[in-house]
Model the fold of this input.
Amino acid sequence: MKRSFISCENLTVGYLGNPLIKEINCQINFNDNIGLIGANGSGKTTFLKTLLGLLRPLSGSVELSKECTVSYMSQMSEIEDLMPFSVYEIVEMGLCSKTKPWLSPSRLYKAEIEEALENTSMAEHSKKLFSKLSGGQKQRALLAQALAPSPDVLLLDEPTRGLDVNQRANFMQLLAKLKKKQGLTVILVSHIFEDFEGMDFDIYAIQGQRLTLAKKLSKDINSQLQDLIESQERSDSHE
Done:
């Protein structure tokens, strides 16, 4: 019997009172792998943050299971170069919620930090400043941060944004490997449809403020999603 970790009922999400995605009704189970695709500004990040309780729904409800550990890999632009921390310290921050405010996570969870660095091939860069890394290395460091608390569920917000083709492919290969190795349930947000190729994901597309299940990617769906995103981004550029 499948166990759900997220249930949405008539959920409308938005920002500053403006709806972006309306009337979402879905149930996501453990071991499901979900891809969410849509143009920039369509509400992908807002949806993730609402699932996590970081934003309040405009209407409807969302329930997140208390039986699971959820990690969130935010967009790199939200933290990039703002703080002069090393890679090790960035990964350590992923464990802050598991410790008392006066305790350093590295004292209690050194093994978890080192394992996350090893699993993302970032151990040799652990002493480097995050701001000095390449784009691909920064994304691997943020992935290590999200993996440090040993989550059951991993939410990733545009993890390949700003990367070149090879960096994107390498990141997605690493994610697929870790997903299988650690038995992760993954929700991946992107506006780049190639990110989902070769990944066994159920794909949801945002179109006209609605969330539509596009099933597994196929050449036909691939073309439709590309047309959808390009048309939405052309529309946005004229606003």
